[in-house]
């Protein structure tokens, strides 16, 4: 069993003395999407003592469970870290909100609930980088192992796992028409995005169970907390990994003005995400040596790739006024409609309150230059200026479109030596000519779909960016004005081979140069996947847990 915290005082550090918290086989930092999977798998053996440390709180708020609650959770300090980017030159100097979940389940508790694996070519690309064991045929069994799909099982869908996947419980006439319009311009209708080639249009499958959000905490962590060998601590701030003789031996964390040290006899596993994990590596002395010196952090291992290689899907949000059709804007603005929605949800567990932020998905190519789909639409029967703000008062749809494989690269770095200080987040959006070209072509394609005959009866009128933008230069400027994150940061502690000087991790997710320390989350991706990144991150945790246990068995 996991030991209770001891009140014995340990040797301190520059911030003062530390209280011994106990010894564990594994310490997992972060109870987000990856951390919940790790907690479940690493604690399955009752002989293994597992400690999970989470900076957020429990998911004991109704809007963590009603799907439409993302409207209230994003931009709320109760549930969101409220990060901000640096001013983005490629977006006209704008500073963006950068939502990250601050609760058990992490971003899976506030995200779009979209179940998406990406393309087979994504993972085969990782394998071609020399990362053996990460090709599509290698990772598909891990996706299947954790899945509990409502549809009949087949070679691409599985039932019986913890990660529930269902079909949406609401439909909108305007989205059916948009899908038909996409078919009229040559984009085929498909019934499943998760078979390795996601090109086409379909309704997104969602991580819900009978109309309720199914977060990683609900699926993996909460059931495992019944195990006496698994301990979860919330509302704690991990300050650093303790490194002794080139080995991770524990972590220092604080809560309520008191500071603790927990010892790890096995491994320390960082699962704090693409923003949190590189910051914690740097605060622990792992990173670019000159940068660490500037922070006043003792260098434990020079690793120049820490915090670099940030990749994210920039979504452009073209908005169209429509007429003669229902949208959520209009429904939500009417008191009796809101009452009907609430009653429908309470009695039937369907209707608009079960909505993911996006219902209709389209994967296609922005131009013939690409071998596989390189852009993704999230089409929504609503419009608003930004998540966390009010819906517009007029009937409208949003045809959000994102470049799936951006060539722009950004960074995440510690701002100071204090863990509580938000890091410097610089996605560096639209910094390459290719990304600007894809953005312009994406807006043009959106206009072609909207102008197709299937949409004509709704008289769509471009509200943003506005029909006056026509040339490549004008459309790139329009993209800069309406672009924002779609919340998919990855790559900031990437895995790679021995010949890659920027690789922070090896192919088994181990931190190079430090023993018994791994990073198992989205920051480990060498290249972003072609679609929503939550389930790929959880797949990496499923595979990473297996690696951790296999390596322990060999010791």
UniProtKB/TrEMBL annotation:
Q: Which InterPro entries match?
A: FAD/NAD-bd_sf, GMC_OxRdtase, GMC_OxRdtase_N, GMC_OxRtase_C
Record Pfam families: GMC_oxred_C (PF05199), GMC_oxred_N (PF00732)
| Keyword DNA repair annotated | no
Query: Which residue windows are transmembrane per the record?
Result: none
Q: Which Gene3D superfamilies match?
A: FAD/NAD(P)-binding domain, Glucose Oxidase, domain 3
Q: Where is the Glucose-methanol-choline oxidoreductase N-terminal domain?
A: 101-124, 273-287
Reported cofactor(s): FAD
| Keyword list, A-Z | FAD, Flavoprotein
Q: Indicate whether Flavoprotein appears among the record's keywords.
A: yes
Q: Please list the residues that bind FAD.
A: 103, 238
Q: Which GO terms describe its molecular function?
A: flavin adenine dinucleotide binding; oxidoreductase activity, acting on CH-OH group of donors
**In terms of domain of life, where is this protein from?**
Bacteria
**Protein family:** Belongs to the GMC oxidoreductase family.
Tell me what this protein is called. Answer: Choline dehydrogenase
């Amino acid at each position: 069993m996991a030991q209770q915290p001891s009140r014995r005082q340990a040797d301190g550090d520059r911030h003062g003395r530390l209280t011994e918290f106990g010894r564990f086989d594994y310490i997992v930092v972060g109870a987000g999407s990856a951390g919940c999977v790790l907690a479940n798998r690493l604690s399955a053996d009752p002989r293994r003592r597992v400690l999970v440390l989470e900076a957020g709180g429990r998911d004991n708020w109704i809007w963590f469970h009603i799907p439409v609650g993302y409207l209230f959770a994003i931009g709320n300090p109760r549930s969101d870290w409220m990060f901000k980017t640096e001013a983005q030159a490629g977006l006209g100097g704008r500073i963006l909100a950068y939502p990250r979940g601050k609760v058990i389940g992490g971003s899976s508790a506030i995200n779009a609930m979209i179940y998406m694996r990406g393309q087979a070519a994504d993972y085969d690309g990782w394998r071609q980088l020399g990362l053996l064991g990460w090709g599509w045929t290698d990772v598909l069994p891990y996706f299947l192992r954790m899945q509990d799909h409502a549809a009949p099982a087949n070679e691409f869908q599985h039932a019986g796992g913890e990660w529930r996947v269902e079909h949406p419980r609401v439909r909108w006439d305007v989205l059916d028409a948009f899908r038909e319009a996409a078919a009229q311009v040559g984009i085929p209708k498909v019934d499943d995005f998760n078979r390795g080639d996601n090109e086409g249009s379909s309704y997104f499958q969602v991580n819900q169970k009978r109309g309720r959000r199914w977060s990683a905490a609900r699926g993996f962590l909460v059931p495992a907390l019944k195990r006496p060998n698994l301990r979860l601590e919330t509302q704690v701030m991990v300050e650093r990994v303790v490194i002794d003789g080139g080995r991770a031996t524990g972590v220092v964390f604080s809560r309520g003005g008191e500071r603790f040290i927990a010892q790890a006899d096995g491994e320390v596993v960082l699962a704090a995400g693409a923003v949190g994990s590189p910051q914690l590596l740097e605060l622990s002395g792992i990173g670019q040596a000159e940068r660490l010196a500037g922070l006043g952090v003792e260098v434990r291992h020079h690793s120049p790739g820490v915090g670099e290689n940030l990749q994210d899907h920039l979504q452009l949000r073209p908005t169209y006024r429509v007429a003669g059709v229902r949208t959520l804007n209009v429904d939500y603005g009417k008191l009796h409609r809101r009452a009907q929605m609430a009653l429908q949800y309470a009695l039937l567990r369907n209707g608009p309150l079960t909505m993911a932020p996006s219902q209709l998905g389209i994967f296609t190519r922005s131009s013939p230059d690409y071998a596989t789909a390189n852009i993704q639409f999230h089409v929504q029967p609503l419009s608003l200026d930004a998540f966390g703000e009010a819906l517009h008062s007029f009937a409208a749809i949003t045809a959000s479109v994102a470049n799936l494989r951006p060539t722009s690269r950004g960074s995440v770095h510690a701002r100071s030596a204090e863990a509580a200080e938000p890091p410097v987040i610089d996605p560096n959006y639209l910094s390459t000519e290719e990304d600007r070209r894809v953005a312009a072509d994406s807006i043009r394609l959106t206009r072609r779909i909207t102008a197709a005959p299937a949409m004509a009866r709704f008289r769509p009128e471009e509200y943003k960016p506005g029909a006056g933008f026509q040339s490549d230069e004008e459309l790139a400027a329009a993209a800069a004005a309406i672009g924002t994150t779609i919340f998919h940061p990855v790559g900031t502690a990437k895995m790679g081979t021995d010949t890659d000087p920027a690789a922070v991790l090896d192919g088994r997710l181990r931190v190079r140069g430090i023993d018994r320390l791994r990073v198992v989350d989205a920051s480990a991706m060498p290249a972003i996947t072609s679609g929503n990144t939550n389930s790929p991150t959880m797949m990496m945790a499923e595979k990473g847990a297996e690696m951790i246990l296999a390596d322990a068995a060999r010791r």
